[in-house]
Amino acid sequence: MDITAVIAIISSFGIVPLIIFLVHRHKERKALIEKGMDMSLLVGDKKCSTLESLKYGVLLIGLAIGILIGNILDAYTGLNEEVSYFSMIFLFGGLALLVFYGLAKKQEAEK
């Protein structure tokens, strides 16, 4: 399976929602500025951005581990390449999100 075809399909379907989101956010911010509303509405909460960074960091680590384990399964077992990679990516990506949930709850309980 050619990985460039997968990347091309994912990026082509991902670009359109990204552009729509950015245009909508620009219009929303422009309207807030024109109405003279508080600029603090435009700046995100620091706590939220810290948790988002933690979430994406843990998720990317999980995806990387999934790719590595998928490669090991592909090399040493009789599984198909697609099955080994995709199953491990989804498995470890989901586990990473569960780890993030536990870390976020623990951090919330400490406050």
TrEMBL record:
<dbReference type="InterPro" id="IPR046216">
    <property type="entry name" value="DUF6249"/>
</dbReference>
<dbReference type="Pfam" id="PF19762">
    <property type="entry name" value="DUF6249"/>
</dbReference>
<keyword id="KW-0812">Transmembrane</keyword>
<protein>
    <recommendedName>
        <fullName>DUF6249 domain-containing protein</fullName>
    </recommendedName>
</protein>
<feature type="transmembrane region" description="Helical">
    <location>
        <begin position="56"/>
        <end position="73"/>
    </location>
</feature>
<feature type="transmembrane region" description="Helical">
    <location>
        <begin position="6"/>
        <end position="23"/>
    </location>
</feature>
<feature type="transmembrane region" description="Helical">
    <location>
        <begin position="85"/>
        <end position="104"/>
    </location>
</feature>
<feature type="domain" description="DUF6249">
    <location>
        <begin position="4"/>
        <end position="104"/>
    </location>
</feature>
<keyword id="KW-1133">Transmembrane helix</keyword>
<keyword id="KW-0472">Membrane</keyword>
